[in-house]
Model the fold of this input.
Amino acid sequence: MKKLAIIGHDQFSLQEIANLMAMFKNHYDIESEIISSSKEDIKTEEGIYVKVDKTFDQFRIEDYYAIIVSGSADFRKSINDSLLIDFLHSLKDKKILKAAICAGPIFFAKAGLLHNKKFTNSLFLQVNEKIKYIDFDNFVEKPVVKDGDILTAVGVAYKEFAVEIARALGFKVNERSYFGFSDEKEIEYNYKLDDESYKLFREFFKDDILS
Done:
């Protein structure tokens, strides 16, 4: 039976995809697998070590419904993982749903998956404007954005992210029955650093990803 492919990368967030994995397992009997560059255990953003099920070279697209990428508070190491970026790039023209949340869409951007695609993310405004491979003209201030086979979401919309992935895959969804999902609250989806914080951010990342 097909599964969800969760991209395991250094310090990836479990919290952002926990509802997603639980929803698909409990309501659709669909399990998730962690795929990564190597079989080494990965330490998540929460400090939990997870085991890798398969490496990228073992991936068979017909075995999965979708590719899922969560974010990370510190993606300096994983954004430079050439095996990860090359794997995502290889999926550019493949017919499979590709979904990313919070900072996760930055991996899609570097892999060329967001070319001419509308998207959202939880990166700060100045970072979105300055990252070399992000086309900020296509940034949309919404909790979840779907453009073709690319689905992106902000971090606080992890419930909506799960629901919209299920909908995109054609599964029946009653949103209010899934983990308290609701669209009643207005949330700001455009985050901006103050000048001093932005200066510290630039020093933190140096010129690795910023123009």
Notes: The helical segments are 15-28, 82-90, 105-110, 125-130, 158-168, 195-205. Residues 130 and 211 are 5 Å apart (CA to CA). The longest strand covers residues 64-69. Strands lie at 3-7, 32-36, 42-43, 49-50, 54-55, 64-69, 97-101, 144-147, 150-153.
